[in-house]
Design goal:
Structural class: alpha+beta
Distance between the termini: 87 Å
Helix content: 40-55%
Largest sheet: 4 strands, antiparallel
Number of strands: 4
Shape: rod-shaped
Number of helices: 12
Radius of gyration: 39 Å
Strand order of the largest sheet: 2-1-3-4
Low-confidence stretches: 71-81, 203-209, 231-244
Order of helices and strands: HHEEHHHHHHHEEHHH
Length: 253
């Protein structure tokens, strides 16, 4: 929510007071305003305000911007007593182990799956899904297959797909100045504020409510001396008319 909307929700505070509070929270490391894109293939952006009860440094907020938020909490007793999970095989290992289910002639042993796992992992890293990998290793098999492990290695090596061309993806998150909302890099917004907002005077110096009337009265007293304006304005016309009456009238011949 922007400053104007927050001031409308909090009727007891004006926009200047809300802006001062947001600036103070940002400088203390509790608040950052970030602009995010909705999905990699979309051009719609939204503005979100992130708040942390624990004050965070600029480096922590920069990692949040990159999607790498560390968990600084220590291991809880429940985590310490959790039994170890069984070893999970990689997707490449699982694809090689599934060859025998696709075609019994390509059944591999555990040792063969472990030896061929790096080659299969390269296929997956190049963007080939696991079902397509299994299909590439089981289609058009000779009959009979004397050594399935050697045949799988030859096909994995000879039919290796090309490396994908990385696309220049736009950043998913852009940090904004908490004060004015201008976007910028995290290193250019220390404390979540741009240079202009950091150098600006505190918003609390701007009078609000009854302070405005007091300021106007002080300015008025400097311009017009007390008790002088009205009396002079009233006596001057009378003195002018009196001077006209004292002058002798001229007779027309």
């Amino acid at each position: 929510m922007d400053i104007k909307t927050l001031a409308q929700e909090l009727a007891a505070y004006g926009q200047q007071a809300v802006a001062t509070a947001l600036k103070t929270l940002s400088e203390a490391g509790h608040l950052r305003r970030i602009r995010e894109r909705l999905g990699d293939d979309r051009t719609q952006w939204v503005q979100r305000t992130y708040f942390s009860r624990t004050p965070r440094g600029d480096a922590w907020w920069q990692r949040l911007l990159a999607g790498d938020v560390p968990d600084t909490d220590t291991d809880s007793p429940a985590q310490a007593t959790t039994p170890p999970q069984p070893q999970q095989h990689s997707s490449a290992y699982s694809a090689l182990a599934a060859l025998g289910r696709a075609d019994a002639r390509m059944t591999l042993s555990a040792a063969e799956c472990a030896a061929l796992e790096p080659l299969a992992a390269e296929w997956l890293a190049h963007g080939v899904p696991a079902p397509q990998l299994v299909q590439a290793l089981t289609n058009g098999l000779p009959d009979p297959v004397h050594c399935p492990g050697a045949l799988a290695r030859k096909r994995l090596t000879d039919k290796m797909p090309p490396e994908p061309v990385p696309a220049a993806a736009a950043p998913l998150r852009i940090m904004e100045c908490t004060g004015c909302g201008i976007p910028g890099r995290p290193d250019a917004l220390p404390g979540g504020l741009c240079r202009a907002c950091r150098r600006a005077e505190p918003s609390s110096s701007v009078p609000e409510g009854n302070d405005v009337h007091a300021r106007v009265e002080r300015l008025r007293s400097l311009v017009v001396p007390p008790g002088a304006g009205r009396s002079q304005a009233r006596t001057s016309p009378r003195q002018g008319r009196g001077e006209l009456r004292d002058q002798p009238r001229r007779t027309r011949r």
